[in-house]
Amino acid sequence: MKRTLEKLVPVTRLGKFFGNEDFDLDIDMGQEWLEGDMNFTVVLYRIDRYKTKKDDVYGEVLEDGIQFMAPIELKGLVQVMAPTNKLYGSSKVEIQEPGNLKFSIYQKQLDDLGVDIWMGDYLGYYETESKVRYYSISDDGYVVSDTKHTYGGYKPFYRTIVATYVSPDEFNGL
Amino acid sequence: MPLPRTIVKPTLPLVPKKVLSERREQLLEYIKDDGTYLPKSVLHADLDKGMLEFVKDKLKVVTSGKIVPLLDIIITTQNWSQYLETWKFVDIDYNPTPPFITVVRTPEVKYGTNPSLQYTIPNRKQFYYASVPTWNGNEQGMDIYTIPQPVPVDITYNVKIICNRMRELNQLNKIVMQTFSSKQAYTFIKGQYIPIILANISDESQLSMESRKYYVQNYEFTMLGYLIDEEEFEVKPAIQRVTQLIEMNTAPRKKRIDKYPKNPDNFETPFLFVSGNTSLTDVIEFSSNMNLLSTSNVDTFDVYINNDYYGSDLQKIEITTNDILTIEVTKNDNTEESNILYENKLI
Q1: Which residue of B has its CA nearest to A135?
Q2: Residues 6+ apart with CB under 8 A from A38
């Protein structure tokens, strides 16, 4: 659920040489480049938190109990971090842990689609035609108050989402 | 209402369980089963395999109707990557997929703390183990089998569960606690019960926000094992029963004539002069020194050798083979017999 103020206050920062129309134009051009030219696509699997069957004590999903809303394709800037070699604890079981997925998306796209992204949702990213990797959102980037996420300090305009690799035991697509 | 899942006594056993000495004999049969009279070697690899089987059988975790798989090898520095290629529970990256259980052995194996085996017998002394009958077609015998005292070892194993759900942790924890409620449990290795002690439980879960989260819980077990090396066994032959066949001549044999003198070195020669006789002559068949031992009813006597006078009342006569010895005696009483006794000592 989106938390907004009931009373709207116009933003007048940079008002002498920049305004809302300029901001919207730049965002449109940026979306045209990112979503039209680049066209990096991820699939968002949103968890239906009301219909999902959970454990009463731990809140863990029961076997095949997780329920999803309809998947949504999102366009954004995708960065996949390098994998790391590590062990499961001190078990000597070696794994090559795939790197996190960092996904930046225009807030306007989410607003147009009427969706939001929450921690715990899953993302699917097709690396090839036949190979898809799933990630669990560990940072939904909801807080965009930092200057980096604003357009020159005018208004926030994108979100950065960090998702970590999930094993097929946890999620393996629908 | 909870109902018991297992019926304690569904049937009466037709064969009662063995106790006391019969049970001990049964355990000995387990040790000798399918082999020789000697126990089989129990070495490091056998102990490791026994631990794996213990985890597989006694610590089996079932959640949501599925068995949590066990990596059925001891992970070492070499075999993991090769093993992954054949393992079923891997994802698209060939990483093992939680949940699973793995057994890690600490490489160092320390001298054991099992009190029944500690420093009791020095110098690998051999002890009697069994007497084994032997038969090679001709000879029946016994071999004595001896073995030295087993060497105690403590091996530390870490049984780790890697999973994504708390209920899988709970399930394994419940099974471990129930199994080790008496502190120790036993694994069965080549007919021998080896105790395992629960030493410690720790958590190595990865709960970082910026990486994948999963649970890793570690159960540290100490196996109070011992090493039995069949290279140290010794087999020694004991008594043997030999069949000997001897051919005997059953024809009647001639009576053996006693040779005179029976004692070739020292024997007596009596000279008996019956009543009315005062002279005796004899051919001596040996060389000796004759010493007078005694006389009876003798006044004097004269000695002739080869008809030559030799002397009278001689205490010692030196005589050689084929000499003709003549003794003439003067009796005290001619109506009685006289005796002269000489002792011969062969030269």
Answers
A1: B212
A2: A75, A77
CATH class of B20-118+125-239: alpha beta
Mutation target vs B (from A81, A88, A122, A162; most B CBs, 10 A cutoff): A88
B82 pLDDT above the threshold of 60: no
CA distance B26 to chain A (A): 39
Interface contact B211-A88, CB threshold 8 A: no
What's the rounded Cα separation, in Å, for the pair B90 and B97? Answer: 5
| CATH match of B266-346 with 2.60.40 | no
Q: Is B102 on the interface with A (CB under 8 A)?
A: yes
B5 confidence band (pLDDT: 50, 70, 90)? low
A125 closest CA partner among A159, A67, A171, A61: A171
> Do the Cβ atoms of B216 and B206 come closer than 8 Å?
yes
* CB proximity B106 to A under 8 Å: no
Residues of B in contact with A94 (CB under 8 A): 80-81
Parse chain A into domains and list their residue ranges.
Answer: 31-165
Are the CB atoms for B229 and A157 separated by under 8 Å? no
Which residues are CB-contacts of B39 (< 8 A; sequence separation ≥ 6)? B31, B32, B147, B190, B191, B192, B228, B230
Question: Which residue of A lies nearest to B159 if distances are taken between CA atoms?
Answer: A91
Residue by residue, pLDDT tens for chain A (174 residues) are: 555 667 888 888 888 889 899 999 999 999 999 999 999 999 999 988 888 888 778 777 777 778 899 999 999 999 999 999 888 887 778 888 899 999 999 999 999 999 999 988 999 999 999 999 999 999 999 999 999 999 999 999 999 999 999 888 788 887
> Which residue from B168, B180, B191 is spatially nearest to B223, judged by alpha carbons?
B180
Q: In this complex, do A58 and B167 lie within 8 Å of one another by their Cβ atoms? A: yes
Q: Where are the domains of chain B?
A: 20-118+125-239, 266-346
Residue whose tokens read 């020789």: B36
pTM above 0.90, yes or no: no
| Residue A101 CB burial class (10 angstroms; 0-12, 13-18, ≥19) | buried
Pairing of strands B234-242, B266-273: unpaired
pLDDT digits (tens, 9 = 90+) for B153-170: 999 999 999 998 898 999
Q: What ipTM was predicted for this assembly?
A: 0.73
Q: What top-level class would CATH report for the domain A31-165?
A: mainly beta
Asked if A39 has any chain B CB less than 8 Å from its own CB, the reply is no
Q: What residues of B are in contact with residue A169 (Cβ under 8 Å)? A: 97-99, 164
Angstroms from A22 CA to nearest CA on chain B: 36
Q: Does B281 touch chain A (CB under 8 A)?
A: no
